[in-house]
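Q: How would the structure tokens look for this protein?
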Amino acid sequence: CVETTTCPQASCNELVTEVEMEASLKSGATPSTQARTDKLLQKYSTYQLRSFVESNRLTRWCPGKGCEFVACASSQACLETIQDRTTQCHSCTTAFCVVCGEEPHAPCACKDVTRWKDKCRNESETANWILANTKSCPKCVSRIEKNQGCNHMTCGRCKHEFCWICMGDWNNHGANTGGYYKCNKFDSKTGGGVEDQSEAARAKRELDRYLHYYKRYHAHDEAEKFARKQLQETEARMVILQESSSNSKWADVEFLKAANEQLVECRHVLKYTYVYAYYFGASPSMQKERFEYHQEMLERFTETLSELSEKPVAAMDRTEVVNTTRVVDRFMRNILKYVEEGMEEA
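A: Here is the predicted structure in token form.
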């Protein structure tokens, strides 16, 4: 560690400062070795800075590709909540967690994100085999490729509507069935034989539970990528929308950009709600039920906003998109606040 370099004298514990290091190198320098001396001093300064940043709990290098900026928190108190740990680089605009260096991951704790990514690496072959890029329509068995962000699927052949995540009938995801998105909850009974306590049965139940959360994590991760791609194309769609009305102004079509930005943010949060739920535990509790309710509501309206934003420009209803964007934002803030406050109801 450059910061703790001490005097080479055996009995001396004095730390070597940058001034002393510079004086030592320059004292023996000659015109022919000056360039080498300057290079060594530059290296020393670089190592000293890197050592300081990596050993300081309030600082972290920006993880952006090729970026050399450093994020610095003013105090430890600034890093107490998960949301406060998130920052965005002023140079490359990369958003990241100052504590762990990962992408923003609210409502998950840093340790759970690390555990989840390690687990996903270990289980990747199994998960990737199950999560193929195409699925069969549950009614006519035609192969269907998912090429948009919304999880409400309609078979092009038989017109059957179903959920891409759980493959259940979309009619069973309506409010009239007692909940829009009941497939967000893991039911241990579906794994079969909870009374079977053999090692093989327990392993299967644990794998089923992991895959339940991983599939939903993966689905929102893919939907987030699609939403980001759609956001890049939004300006062109805004131009078309503006030109479709003779007296329309740019401000009148900005709702489309706001909706897509909201979709990106919500997909990102939803992705990590499944990591949070996985480590919350399998045992039922009132807190878990309330968390799944908040998750369900956010998922419900995110899917609605996704469908609205993917409509052809001519078929868009500005008022409906604006109102749904506001509702989605409120539900996203609700679930983050609920976790931040220790999952205690007001």
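The two ends are 49 Å apart (CA to CA).

The chain has three domains: 1-55, 58-104, 119-132+183-340.

Upvote if useful.
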